[in-house]
Write a structure and sequence with these properties.
heterodimer, B: Arc Repressor Mutant, subunit A, 2% strand, RNA polymerase sigma-70 factor (ECF subfamily) (chain B), transcription (chain B), RNA_pol_sigma70_r2 (chain B)
């Protein structure tokens, strides 16, 4: 088959559309009066809510750590401090996403625009990975240094096992929550829900863009 | 109706084929397609004030329509929750029957099977755009357009021939 035949088929499709395609002016005019609610703008409220919630949580943790610094025990200060740090990074990424939402312009070339939008969506995966790192610190914040000498060795044994297990799981998840593992049963179990589908599809888009970039860099203007 | 609104609607009317073809290539389902047509028109309207008259209207429309279609496909199954659905669509086929023709249907379905960016590339090529124009819409170099296009065409031709 020649190129020209491919184009001929398309031209015949074009001719049919020319004959049958109807433009309803009233409906089109109604659309221009609608409130703009695109995919991007629909992402905005949930991200703003998450950022606000995150900031409140960080403030709460930091106030607690600062106020308990002179009297608090080491376990609590280190645990709460680390949880706060991890959450600060996550909120930082969310803020970056919000900024990106405002700067994405669909007037720009398709590849660079899609790269931004897909990058924006997939950075949620990064937030999830980073948040996993706080897991072991949730098993240590209530411990007291004064128990070290007095508490039952059996208690410390169990505690160490739990903390080590959580640490191992959190590091494993941090390393393995990646697009490449999307088909693994554990990944589908954790992220198989409907909300994660756009993130996986956005990652597919980044793979497609990378495939084009292999030949030559994409043009942004 | 304002002058800007009139001018916008006329622009859409004269380029309705672009909107329909993009929506039809990215959405097989009629309801999804109607939603996508609506979203494309909405985004075109939103971007219309920033349209530069020295720019080719159809090129500008294609760029926005493709950006909207590719972004929207990720949310395909809940698109109706995002938009305020209208009772009827703005651009549709007069007779609600397929444009029955074996080769046309086959080409349509093969295009729908392509990856999102490849689909955009072949749509622009089949619509007669020059490599430089395709590069401008997609934001890739002419040589990149040529290389990729040659592979996609080959792929399509092989599949059509094998049917």
């Amino acid at each position: 088959m020649q190129d020209i035949q491919l184009q001929e088929i398309w031209k015949s499709y074009d001719r049919k559309l020319e004959e049958q395609l109807v433009f309803n002016r009233k409906n089109a005019s109604d659309i221009t009066k609608m409130k703009v609610k695109s995919e991007l703008t629909s992402m905005r409220p949930i991200k703003i809510f998450t950022v606000l919630l995150g900031i409140l949580w960080i403030i709460f943790l930091d106030v607690l750590v600062i106020n308990l610094l002179p009297i608090g025990n080491l376990f609590f200060l280190i645990s709460a401090g680390f949880i706060s740090l991890v959450n600060k990074i996550a909120v930082g990424i969310y803020l970056y996403q919000l900024i990106l939402i405002y700067v994405v312009n669909i007037n720009r070339p398709v590849m660079s625009t899609q790269k931004k939008i897909a990058g924006l969506t997939t950075s949620t995966l990064w937030v999830t990975r980073i948040l996993m790192l706080q897991l072991p610190f949730w098993t240590t914040f209530f411990l007291n240094s004064s128990w070290i000498g007095s508490a039952n060795p059996f208690f410390w044994g169990i505690q160490a096992l739990i903390t080590l297990a959580f640490a191992a799981v959190s590091i494993w998840l941090f390393i393995n929550i990646r697009y490449e593992n999307r088909d693994k049963p554990w990944f589908k179990f954790l992220f198989g829900s409907y909300e994660w589908t756009p993130i996986m599809k956005a990652q597919e888009m980044l793979v497609q863009i990378k495939d084009y970039e292999k030949l030559e860099p994409i043009i942004t203007n | 109706m304002s002058k800007e609104n009139e001018s916008f609607l006329s622009s859409i009317e004269s380029n309705k084929g672009i909107i329909y073809k993009v929506a039809n290539s990215y959405c097989k389902d009629a309801d999804d397609r109607a939603d996508l047509v609506q979203e494309i028109i909405l985004q075109l309207w939103k971007a219309f004030p920033s349209f530069q008259p020295d720019y080719k209207l159809s090129t500008w429309m294609y760029r926005i329509a493709l950006n909207v279609a590719i972004s929207a496909y990720r949310k395909a199954s809940n698109r109706c929750q995002i938009y305020q659905p209208l009772s009827e669509t703005a651009i549709y086929l007069a007779e609600d029957k397929s444009l029955a023709n074996d080769n046309r249907d086959l080409l349509q379905s093969l295009i729908r099977e392509l990856k999102e960016v490849d689909k955009a590339l072949i749509l622009l090529y089949l619509d007669g755009y020059l490599y430089s124009e395709i590069g401008e819409i997609l934001g890739i170099s002419e040589s990149n357009v040529a290389t990729k296009l040659s592979r996609i065409k080959q792929q399509l031709k092989q599949k059509i021939t094998s049917y």
